[in-house]
Structure formats: C-alpha cells, structure tokens
From TrEMBL:
Organism: Paractinoplanes atraurantiacus
A Pfam family matched in the record: Metallophos
Family: Belongs to the cyclic nucleotide phosphodiesterase class-III family.
Domain of life per record: Bacteria
Protein name: Calcineurin-like phosphoesterase superfamily domain-containing protein
Alphabetized UniProt keyword annotations: Hydrolase, Iron, Metal-binding
Keyword Cell inner membrane attributed: no
Molecular function as annotated in GO: hydrolase activity; metal ion binding
PANTHER family: CYCLIC NUCLEOTIDE PHOSPHODIESTERASE CBUA0032-RELATED, PHOSPHOHYDROLASE
Domain Calcineurin-like phosphoesterase span(s) in chain numbering: 5-181
Amino acid sequence: MTLLVAHVSDLHLGAHDPRAAAGLAADVVAARPGLTVVTGDSTMRARPREFRLARQLLDRLPRPLLVVLGNHDVPLWSRRRVLDPYGAYRSGITDELDPVRRVPGLTALGLPSMPRWRWKNGRLTGRQADLAARVLGDAPDGDVRLVAMHHPPGAGWLPGWDRLRRAARPDIVLAGHTHVPRVLPMDDCVIVVAGTATSHRTRGVPHSWSLISVSPAAFAISERYLDDVGWYTARVVDVPRFSAAMS
C-alpha cells in the first residue's frame, strides 16, 4: 500500500504572497493526500488578523490535518508571550499542541518545538521524548512512525533531538523553518524539510511544498514549486527506508 502525505510549512499569513496563498490549497487537494501536515509558522507575527487568514487557508486543506506551532506563531516579546504564549495559537489555529493522527499504515505525532523563552531556535524536552516514545511505541506493527515539528534537527536548531530519536525511533521527521526544501536521509530515519509555501521569505527558492509517497520499501519526496504558470514538480528524491545516503 502507498500512502501520500502532503507537507506544507511557513505560510506566514500576514506577510504572504497572495498568488501562492490563493493556489496552494487547490494544488494540495489535487494530490489527494491521506494526511496533510503543516509544520509551523502559520502566521507572521501571531496577530489576530493573521490567525484569521491562516485559519481560512487551513480550512481549505485536505483532512485529516495535523498542524504544529512555529516560532512565528508565538507573540514577540510582550506580556502575552510571558503570561500566555500559546493562547492566540490555541484559539486561532488549534487547541492541540501535541496532535496525534492515525491513518492506515501511519502514526503521526506533532510537537511544539518552540518554547516561549527561546526566540528563533527550538528545543525538545524530556517530556516530549517520553510522549513520542509512548505514541510511536503504540503504533500498529508495520506502521510508518512520523514526527512533525517546526525546527529541523541539526545545526544547533534543536537541542533534545538525540534523546527523542533514541527514545521514539521515528521513521520520518517533517520540519520547516529554514525556508529551503531538503531531504536528509540518516541511518535510521529520513528528515524532510519543507520550503516556503506562501511567505515572502523564499530564500532564493520558489514557493514550494512537498508530497511524500510512503511505501513499505521507500519514501519518494516530490517537491512542488510555483512558477508563472502554476505549480509543478521540480524534483523527486527517492529514499530507501533507513538509507544512510545524503541528498
């Protein structure tokens, strides 16, 4: 059985390209994914209007939908950040900070990698590692075990990753934050970093999202880019399960 997972990140509603935002949902819907994952930064500055815009776009994406918190979804330094850092996100996007989605053949867990005391880089806690171990440990035999978070492991962005990796042993990790799509196969899992879906922050790469085909033997990651004509597949990266090759 082959399962399709749509991976979208870095919407930054409020500082977005209207054309990219207008066409994104239709392109994702056309792919008919079995699960849609949004790895954070639904808004630019966690303002009420931005959460409303984000909610409108998220409502057009295919279900089931798993959304995680990004660093831009937490208010800038203010009373709100200290007293209720996730309040606006909970009311505007979802009350689930650790969402779990189970579809045939896959168990997925989302984690907020943005604590209120950090600004750009993330962190995973021991509690989150224990939670991931429980959720993924309860996955049916043969299920692909997926973790979604905003910050990708590596380059100092995510202290605590090694503990979670050893405890939970995910097969695939989805992240965003860097605005550049990448596929990073490791010896025991593959990390898929989505590019910028609708934000003006494209970092020299067109607006993009990733479609992941999951089969028993491999992951195939198709990167969908936006040009003047519309969305198209720019490249496909095939990763045998548990490959140590780098891409």
